[in-house]
Fold this sequence. Notes:
Radius of gyration: 19 Å
CATH class: Mainly Beta
CATH architecture: Beta Barrel
Strand order of the largest sheet: 1-2-3-4-5-6-7-8
Amino acid sequence: MKIILSIIFMFLTAQSFADLTGKGLICTFTDSGFTKYKPRSFYFTSTENYERRNITEKNDKFKILLIDESRYKTDKDFISLWGNEMTVNRKTLEYVSMDNAYGTLGYCEVFDDFKKLNKAYTKIKNTYQEEYNKTLEGNKI
């Protein structure tokens, strides 16, 4: 009886690393050819779909925009982001192109829910806005 209860408890308390639903990533570019790109966020809305958000600038204001919703697939080593043609190594969190033509483009940080992901991504956007605002100082108009 103790063995059965132990097995049931183990299944109820085990964290699932296979199901990405409700989790998210913020991926930052570190490759010198891609550092002009702002970090991207990915939020996994279901067992097959994700949303990608980018930080964009227009008329001196930085915003977070939903760029697209697309499909993803996983295997034991990688998360393949189809609409973005990128993969994330599940162990190292390296962000690479699917054909690996560019090597490691950057690294990702994992978030366990949308609220934490959004808060961190908003903080990044605000940092870009503050840095940009400094470049506007001294403008007459």
